[in-house]
Write a structure and sequence with these properties.
The complex is a heterodimer.
Chain A: H1 2-31, H2 33-60, E1 63-64, E2 72-73, H3 77-84, H4 87-119, H5 123-138, H6 144-149, H7 157-164, H8 178-191, H9 196-207, H10 210-219, H11 224-235, H12 237-252, H13 256-262, H14 274-284, H15 288-314
Antiparallel strand pairs in A: 1-2
Helix pairs in contact in A: 2-15, 4-8, 4-9, 4-12, 4-14, 8-13, 9-12, 12-15, 14-15
Chain B: H1 2-29, H2 33-36, H3 38-47, H4 54-60, E1 69-72, E2 78-87, E3 90-107, E4 111-121, E5 129-135, E6 147-149, E7 152-155, E8 160-161, E9 168-169, E10 173-176, E11 180-183, E12 196-199, E13 202-212, E14 215-223, H5 232-241, E15 255-259, E16 265-266, E17 274-275, E18 292-297, E19 306-313, E20 317-326, E21 335-341, E22 353-355, E23 362-365, E24 374-376, E25 379-387, H6 393-417, H7 429-432, H8 434-458, H9 463-480, H10 485-507, E26 511-519, H11 532-545, E27 565-570, H12 576-595, E28 599-604, H13 609-614, E29 621-626, H14 629-635, H15 648-652, H16 657-660, E30 664-665, E31 668-669, E32 672-677, E33 679-684, H17 685-690, H18 701-713, E34 718-719, H19 724-733, E35 739-740, E36 745-746, H20 751-765, H21 775-781, E37 786-790, H22 793-800, E38 808-811, E39 816-817, E40 823-824, E41 827-836, H23 843-853, H24 856-870, H25 881-886, H26 891-901, E42 904-906, H27 914-930, H28 934-955
Parallel strand pairs in B: 27-28, 27-29, 34-37, 41-42
Antiparallel strand pairs in B: 1-14, 2-3, 3-13, 3-14, 4-11, 4-12, 4-14, 5-6, 5-13, 7-10, 8-9, 15-26, 16-19, 17-18, 18-26, 19-25, 20-23, 20-24, 20-26, 21-22, 21-25, 29-41, 30-31, 32-41, 33-37, 33-38, 35-36, 39-40
Classes of the chains: A mainly alpha, B alpha+beta.
Chain lengths: 318, 959
């Protein structure tokens, strides 16, 4: 009997709940019409140019599509192929994880450290240093100058200097020799990673009210580390979160730097990332279905990484 | 225990002491470095003496004029490649572009003679006529290697206005074939109007060798005279003595304008009317419609180029002459023009009229504040302005000469130091190469002096002065402490490059002219600009108009917009915009006018074609689609198989089969070639000669390898691009193939392919030729006197390296010896082509367009136009054989090109073919980086090529 009641009453109550919920939501929405109107322009653009493409890409990842002919549905074959029959993808996955694991946290910490140090400076100096550190990421194509540094020509800057001072006899082919490519490229990415993250941190530091430090000092904060951990960081949590998301998505989607420095594709795929792999299939081979599958995997990886990061950051200051 | 330790300790101390003493002894007896390299040191002084300039010749044979004039007998000449004809009542010599004409002359009195001749150009490729002068079987100096005879052009008709756009339309130009009299002069314009040849009394042979273009030679004479010009004062006195007076009241407002764009004649086709919108005072001008209102600018800057105008003089008498001009390029030096009236330079001062720098238009009278008077006779008179480097000639000659000496020093140093000297090694330069120190000492002083004189000339410490000072400082440092030479060497080499660039730049004399005027002596100078507010209003109108006007003019041209075909041209190509403009002009004037088909030409970034086609906004025709793209599109059904058109076979006879090999797939052809690139061998003949290497004998790669030690011993090297295409060249020369059965499988695992790879990669692994390098830069300095590079490098070298002009040649590629004793000298052809998209609704019209565009006439006109806009460095690498032949190449170079063209092969395209080049590149890098075994390395990459081929064939249902 009880069972029956439960069985009978549960759907009813659920349906009713949904109805009332929807009703409530609708009421809420009506009350906030103006807000929704304000959101509308961006929401429209977001849906058309971000959300829709993501959905289409996920759909295309289950097809075979060469841009010109209609897509053919082939189930999860693309995913099978990616994980079981594509060595280069595994290499790309490995490279991406290496880059993300090193550049993501390191770039994040570097950004934070620099922001922290600069924050201690006088106003004029702060502005100056902010510009200096932010400049590399402002000038997007600047990465290409490193290819002049690392050129395999015996007259190029680094080879020329090394030969001049007798460290080497013949030029090293830095950007075509798998021995050197990965470390050098990681350095270059770090150099250019003081971007948006860095700016948001500077803003975060600026946003902390001096009263808190005063109060904390009275409450028994003993040193700058404690100040940082218990006051600054918790107050900066939104910026930290934003910075983390930017860092991680930036680290996972590197690829242009590799192309600019090591060429496309890099020797023996030594610095081939998932983004490079995606470009390879999308533009060289016109296998859009497979490229979309790669994109989907990349998307999921970034989603996962962001979730983890957010979990970790909640622990800050506790 | 302790004892043993102590004992051991003693032993260690003793050993160290012994070693130390031994080291000391050895150090003191270390043979000096050059002892081991004695041969190099001994050779260096004799090796590189290449100064063969006219300047040096004149020092050895001082100009001695005896006033003799000696007419040569045209009919007595020994001629090959030409024939004697009758022109009216006198005999003339028709010489073709490979002709040799020799006279045996009995010279009565020893002296310096100039060669004067009457010539008339024959129709050729409309390029400059070039001849080499040989005296007694020898070219006496470098300047005689290539002397120029200009052609004359004029505009057909007036400038007209387009009804639709309101823009001016440039009139067509044509050559004026007429007799001219000139002296043999040097092409750089350094040495005035004639070159002298020192001839002793007795019999001499004088030879004209054709280098480029045919011409008719009329009278030829030897003159031991010079150009005598009176000074202005003398000339004026002479005019006045003849009764000439200043004119007044004959001209309206005392002034008569001659628009610069309405030329009479000109020496080059690049001197056409152009549009200037930088000033509202330019006549005529309009704020939005394009008026052709000027001539010149950077198109009128090379020595000897001239433009002439005619003026109707109302009354005989003395006039002043002036002009409105813009000289905003040469900040440091005024540019010079020579003024000629009726073909004569009136007086000495008119040889080089200075035009000073300003960022705005200026007006001036010839002669400045106190204008010169010129006697003009009533009637139609010709005024000519010719680029003249007279203002800087003397200094430039000296700097060039100094540079030649320093270049020799550079080579001597290179043979000892190598390109990258070891800073920790003592080279004992002062003992090894005492003559180098000597030259440096002299030149250090010389450069200081030159800097001072340049400063006196310009009155400013400009970049040229500081470059000269810097060189002087560097040289004196090298002399002061010869041990520092190794560390200063690379800066020294940079100085040489900078000086070469400086000479090339200082020789350029760009000037833009708006109008000329003849005026009565009392007329005040017209204002050059209408003033600030007029300019402001003009700029405002331009800004406003920019929102309403389609400047591209690349809009639909022609009758029916509905039937218009859309043509895309990639904007990624160098000079993409210039190319588009040049092409559009051709389309409007030629194609649309003739075919009645409107063309909508659009400049679009490459790589968007497929997506645009998918979205239904793609073009009908896409141009300059390169490499594997046509076949890639074709596999997916995006492009039309052009071989289905009726006259396809006829069209393809315009090209070498290699040019369209990459566009063929399964019996279809998907693109018509536009451009064609292939490598050639570039050789520094001066260096090869001094090394005793006969360049003509370099027929196979083995020959190159055989001479490598000779070259490398002097720290120079051979260059071969480390690329997939280079490997393909070796592969084809070794009778290998890329694929078996139309791309079923890679054929790189065959014996031929593996051997070819081995032979190719050995250049880097065994013979240590450079892997990454800048060919142009090192070829110029002589570090790479021998190398393989794309043939278009020829143009770059011609323009940017004046100091090695005439000291290098372009040769067909070396080959591989075959079993039957022949040599396979195949080169790899690459390029771009035009395609028609399958989505096009105007396929027939598109085909007509492509046929027109790839035809000889359009390709030739396009190439000529590009060259006139962007200069000879932008010479168009057309795939059309006849058009290429008509471009103004020197005949020896054209022959080399044609020889190589007949030996080209294209790279076949198959589905998945990109994996071949990718993996071969990987293999090349692997061997270079890790020095792995060559054949097995290549083999290890074959599987991934085959896998991709298989996958792609499955995808396209070919298996």
């Amino acid at each position: 009997m009880r069972n029956t009641v439960t069985r009978n009453s549960a759907p009813r109550s659920l349906g009713a709940r949904i109805r009332t919920d929807l009703g409530n939501q609708f009421k809420l929405a009506r009350r906030h019409t103006v807000h929704y109107l304000f959101m509308l322009p961006h929401a429209t653009i977001f849906c058309i140019f971000t959300l829709l493409p993501v959905i289409i890409a996920i759909f295309l990842s289950f097809t075979s599509f060469d841009i010109l002919q209609a897509p053919k549905f082939i189930g999860i074959q693309n995913y099978f192929r990616m994980f079981l029959n594509d060595d280069v993808f595994i290499t790309a996955l490995k490279n991406t994880i290496i880059v993300a694991a090193i550049v993501g946290p390191l770039g994040y910490i570097l950004s934070f450290m620099f922001a922290w140090f600069i924050n201690e400076l006088a106003h004029a100096m702060r502005v100056l240093f902010t510009i200096i550190f932010y400049a590399p990421s402002l000038a997007g194509g600047m990465v290409a100058i490193w290819s002049i540094f690392f050129s395999g020509d015996s007259r190029a800057l680094i080879n020329g200097t090394l030969i001049r001072f007798g460290f080497i006899d013949s030029p090293i082919n830095f950007m075509q020799d798998p021995k050197y490519m990965m470390p050098l490229i990681i350095v270059v990415i770090l150099w250019s990673s003081l971007g948006t993250t860095f700016l948001s941190f500077i803003a975060g530091f600026q946003g902390v009210d001096a009263q808190y430090y005063e109060a904390a000092a009275i409450d028994g904060i003993r040193n700058r580390w404690q100040e940082l951990w218990y006051i600054t960081l918790p107050l900066m949590r939104p910026q930290l979160l934003f910075g983390a998301v930017m860092s991680i998505s930036g680290a996972f989607s590197t690829g242009d730097v590799m192309t600019a420095l090591a060429g496309f594709p890099s020797t023996d795929y030594a610095v081939h990332t998932i983004v490079n792999h995606l470009q390879d299939y999308g533009t060289t081979r016109y296998e859009m279905g497979y490229a979309c599958a790669i994109a989907t995997v990349l998307f999921l990886m970034m989603l996962l990484a962001n979730t983890i990061i957010q979990k970790v950051l909640r622990k800050v200051g506790t | 225990m302790r004892v043993i330790a102590l004992k051991n300790g003693h032993r260690v101390v003793r050993r160290v002491a012994a070693l130390f003493t031994a080291a000391l002894v050895m150090l003191s007896y270390t043979p000096r470095v050059y002892a081991e390299e004695g041969t190099v040191g001994a050779l260096s002084s004799s090796v590189l003496n290449t100064d063969n300039s006219y300047n040096k010749y004149c020092k050895e044979n001082p100009v001695f004029l005896n006033g003799e004039e000696l007419l040569l007998d045209i009919t007595a000449a020994t001629v090959t490649g030409g024939e004697l004809k009758q022109d009216g009542d006198r005999p003339v010599l028709h010489t073709n572009e490979n002709a040799t004409v020799t006279w045996e002359v009995s010279v009565p009195v020893t002296g310096s003679y100039a060669i004067k001749l009457d010539y008339k150009p024959l129709p050729g490729t409309e390029g400059i006529i070039k001849r080499q002068i040989v005296i007694d079987g020898k070219v006496p100096y470098d300047e005689a290697n290539s002397v120029f005879f200009t052609r004359v052009f004029h505009d057909i008709g007036e400038i007209e206005r387009d009804v639709n756009s309101g823009n001016d339309i440039r009139p067509k130009q044509e050559e004026v074939t007429m007799w001219s009299t000139t002296y043999v002069a040097d092409s750089s314009g350094y040495y005035g109007d004639r070159l002298y040849f020192y001839l002793t009394a007795g019999i001499h042979s004088i030879t004209f060798n054709s280098l480029q273009e045919p011409m008719i030679i009329g009278a030829v004479s030897l003159c031991s005279t010079k150009r005598e010009l009176p000074t202005y004062e003398e000339k004026l006195a002479q005019w006045r003595a003849n009764g000439a007076t200043e004119i007044s009241g004959a001209l309206q407002n005392g002034l008569m304008l001659i628009e610069a764009e309405s030329m009479h004649q000109k020496s080059a086709q690049t001197l056409y009317a152009i549009n200037d919108m930088s000033s509202c005072s330019t006549s005529p001008s309009h704020y939005v419609e394009q008026r052709l209102n000027c001539i010149g600018g950077t198109r009128w800057q090379e020595a000897g180029e001239w433009v002439s105008w005619t003026v109707d003089v109302p009354q005989s008498g003395l006039y002043t002459i002036g002009m409105r001009f813009l000289q905003n390029t040469s900040r440091d030096m005024p540019v010079g023009r020579m003024l000629m009236i009726e073909g004569e330079i009136p007086f000495e001062e008119a040889k080089a009229i200075p035009f000073s720098y300003s960022n705005k238009f200026q007006t001036m009278y010839v002669g400045g504040k106190d204008p010169y008077l010129f006697y003009l006779e009533k009637g139609t008179r010709e005024i000519r302005l010719q680029v003249s480097t007279d203002l800087v000639n003397e200094l430039l000659i000296e700097i060039s000469e100094a540079l030649t000496q320093l270049n020799q020093v550079n080579w001597s140093l290179l043979t000892v130091l190598g390109a990258e000297p070891d800073l920790y090694k003592n080279y004992y330069i002062d003992e090894q190469l005492p003559e180098v120190i000597e030259v440096l000492t002299v030149q250090a002083e010389n450069f200081e002096n030159l800097a001072k004189r340049w400063f006196e000339l310009t009155g400013e410490i400009d970049t040229n002065v500081s470059q000269l000072e810097q060189t002087a400082y560097r040289l004196s440092n090298m002399v002061k402490d010869p041990d520092k030479i190794p560390s200063l060497y690379s800066a020294f080499r940079d100085d040489l490059g900078a000086l070469g660039d400086m000479i090339a730049a200082a020789r350029k004399q760009p000037l833009m002219l708006d109008y000329l005027f003849i005026a009565e002596a009392a007329t005040p100078l017209p204002k050059a600009n209408r003033g600030f507010f007029a300019d402001l209003w003009y700029e405002i109108m331009r800004l406003v108009a920019s929102y309403f006007n389609d400047y591209n003019g690349i809009a639909v041209s022609g009758a029916d917009a509905e039937q218009a075909i859309t043509v895309w041209i990639g904007s990624g190509v160098t000079g993409g915009r210039d190319q588009a403009l040049a092409l559009n002009q051709l389309i409007v004037q030629d194609f649309s006018a003739r075919q009645g088909v409107a063309v909508n030409l659009q400049l679009v970034p490459g790589g968007t074609i497929l997506t645009a086609t998918l979205a239904g906004v793609g073009p009908d025709v896409a141009l300059s689609i390169s490499g594997s793209e046509p076949v890639n599109y074709a596999i997916r059904g995006a492009t039309v198989d052009l071989s289905q058109f009726e006259d396809f076979d006829e069209v393809m006879t315009r090209f070498m089969p290699a040019a369209y090999k990459a566009y063929e797939y399964l019996g279809g052809t998907y693109a018509i070639p536009e451009t064609l690139n292939f490598p050639m061998m570039f050789v520094r003949t001066d260096i090869m000669k001094s090394l005793g290497i006969d360049t003509a004998s370099l027929e196979t790669w083995q020959d190159v390898v055989d001479i490598l030690p000779l070259v490398q011993r002097r720290n120079m090297n051979f260059a071969l691009p480390a690329s997939y295409n280079s490997y393909a060249m070796f592969l084809f020369q070794n009778n290998g193939n890329l694929y078996v059965e139309d791309g079923k499988k890679s054929a790189l695992d065959t014996r031929e392919a593996l051997d070819a790879f081995h032979n190719f990669i050995r250049f880097y692994s065994d013979y240590s030729t450079p892997y990454a390098y800048s060919f142009e830069a090192r070829f110029r300095t002589g570090e790479i006197p021998l190398g393989i590079a794309d043939y278009t490098v020829y143009n770059t070298l011609q323009i940017s390296a004046p100091e090695i002009q005439g000291k290098w040649v372009m040769m067909p590629l070396p080959g591989t010896l075959q079993a039957d004793g022949t040599i396979n000298r195949t080169g790899i052809a690459t390029g771009g082509g035009s395609i028609i998209m399958s989505a096009s609704e105007h396929k027939e019209a598109s085909w007509e367009f492509i046929k027109w565009w790839t035809d000889t006439e359009a390709q030739y006109q396009f190439g000529k136009e590009l060259e006139s806009v962007m200069g000879p460095a932008a010479r168009y690498n057309t795939a059309n054989l006849k058009a290429l032949e008509r471009l103004p190449w020197q005949s020896a170079d054209r022959l080399s090109l044609m020889t190589q063209m007949n030996r080209l092969q294209g790279l076949p395209e198959v589905p998945g073919g990109y994996m071949t080049s990718r993996n071969v590149d990987f293999a090349i890098r692997k061997v270079y980086n890790e020095n792995t075994e060559t054949r097995s390395t290549l083999l290890s990459y074959i599987e991934s090529i085959n896998q991709e081929l298989r996958l792609k064939r499955e995808e396209f249902g070919l298996e």
